[in-house]
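Revision sheet: structure tokens.
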Amino acid sequence: MTYPAASDLITRRTTLSGLAAACLAACAPSGNSKAKLLRIGFQKNGLLLLAKRSGRLDRALSAPPGALARWLEFSSGPPLLEAMTVGSVDLGSTGDAPPIFAQAAGAPIVYVAMVRLSGAAGAILTPKGSGIATLADLRGKRFAFTRGSSAHNTAAAALESAGLTFADVQPIALAPADAATAFAQGGIDAWVIWDPYMTVAIQTQGARALPLPPNLVGGAAFFLANRDFAQAHGDVLAHALDALAAEGRWASAHRAEVAKLQAQATGLPLELLQDTVLRDDFTLTPLAPDIISRQQSSADRFARLGLIPRSVEIAQALWAGWKPA
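Predicted:
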């Protein structure tokens, strides 16, 4: 089968910021509305995409305490959290790095739940025949990642594990679609990326994944909420997380159906998604101490490298209001 060019996999969208974010905030219903509005920021992947496509979360919210969902699509985690910061999004999910940058900037966000990741759906890729066999071989190489994303965190941690810093490589910040084009054309030597880009590069270009030390594999994707919303409407938030946990249990047991839903939502080939969905993680749980410790280590690394303006304490941004049955 012929796959589309990696640069065409996901349509670029205008990010929500500035006046657009303010407009969404102004469009929210007044406090006299009978049903509370839950504004959900989602990307074209993961548990929230499935919940939107299936309608299960909307149906669950209609039960007491009674709420309505408004779904807002974002191209990546940083603009989603920007909208959450200005009060235009109440709940959303991102990788590990965006909330660190947001908290360092003073954003009123809280961690509310997590999906533990196996790490199988992402990698540091090198071109076929590049001769790069270890992380130490990245010295002096053109090393690409998406700034402010989980890939940024992986890049920093990978270099640190090899005794390197960003000063030892040629760091290149590129959005995934742009990086996919550069990688295919030989413009970069190594690339931190996730599915479906990872699988396309491996299957169509013979890309190879660098071996990583165990402490770099895995981690978590986080569900985050606007702090004010969590404090004022904890019952609605907990109800939504219950529904998302149920969605995750269904997805884990019905991966073929998940691939079909993803294909319908993204336009990607079903055969490709039938492969990538085998590596996806869907189990939503409360925040775990080991993951919070790992997140704090990432935040400390960012502060040491000067990637964030100040140190942050992850424990100051935790919400413990979800107690799943």
